[in-house]
Amino acid sequence: MRHVPAHPARTDATGPNSGADVGEAGAGAGLRLTGSAPMVTDLSLEELEREARLVIGEMAYAYFAGGADDERLLTGNVEAWGHWQLHPRVLAGVSSVSTATTLLGSPVASPVGIAPTAIQGLAHPEGEVATARGAAAAGALLILSSLATCRLEDVASAVPPEAVRWMQIYVLRDRARTVDLVARTVAAGYRALVLTVDAPVSGLRLREWRTGVHLPDDLALPNLAGDSTSSAREGGFMAVVTNEFEPALTLDDIEWLGGLSELPVVVKGVQRADDAVRCVDAGAVGVVVSNHGARQLADAPATADILGEVVDAVGGRAEVYVDGGVRRAPDVAKALALGARAVLVGRPSLWALATGGADGVAGLLGWFESELRRAMALCGAATVEGLDRSLVRPTPGTGWTSVGTGPRQ
Description:
By secondary structure, the protein is an alpha/beta fold. It has a single domain, classed as Alpha-Beta Barrel (TIM Barrel). It is built from 15 helices and 14 strands. The two termini are 35 Å apart. The relative contact order is 0.19.
């Protein structure tokens, strides 16, 4: 990352990217602001990915980077954010910008959080612990994957109690193991359960299969227990989905999971407006518009193309989040303008973890936050609530004609 120390853009003096004392982690990330003049970080995610590939090797890279079938949706997710344009408002009197918001009532410094990505021990020796530290340093949400290579308790103890942590959950065929996982999650202070519902079977991940991706002997899956570790070592991660996950989930499982604790339930993997409504009717307090990082069904819609209709259908009854193909701060601004409460990033956080550990993750999130402030200022929005439908429009020639009028969640 190349850091340019002087730029005339202004920012407010609050949040983890202010000119305040940031300590060793902030200095290592190199993305903090000095006074009222923000640092400009010349960050290329493409270069970061290439560097990460050299660090982690081909097997890990195939697992993290691969998608389903011919991988067309990997490109589709990224390109779909180009189906929308930001429509700036001028003379808006914006002298300072804040990216602060709340997620299920918990304050965060930015609406950009870390998506649940599995097997992070393939990317860095400290795995999910390092990612959690980076997210906490940036004041961002972390969603921990059930397929983590670190114990959820170790991840929790590595960060301050105020760090916002949610736990991603798969309902397992052996439901007693899911009950145990939820109990551990509650005891460790996680604030929500994120139920993934888009994996009744594994997607056909040809790159993963052809490369022989499997769990190395020096890593384990301590949060799933049972036979998951041996399945992942012997048959790869597609075998874990086939052998361990409950394939026949229904709406009743949202209520069942919610009944195991007092934690709110967010449903991840929603790709239809009517499904979003049904999830909320069944008790979900939030939905994540997601196609599993293009790893399940290659011919599913890109999330940027369906986000607005999901927001409109939910109608403010629950918070809506989105992941998939977000690579730039303007993508985040578009998602918020379309009605998302927050945006989750997956693969970019893995490349940052692989190349820089906790500081790398904090730096990536700081880059998103700093550049989101710039995009907001250029659009005339002083707060994330100010990013509304009036600031986004369909890109001419894409076939889109309307973005609706749904409320922010």
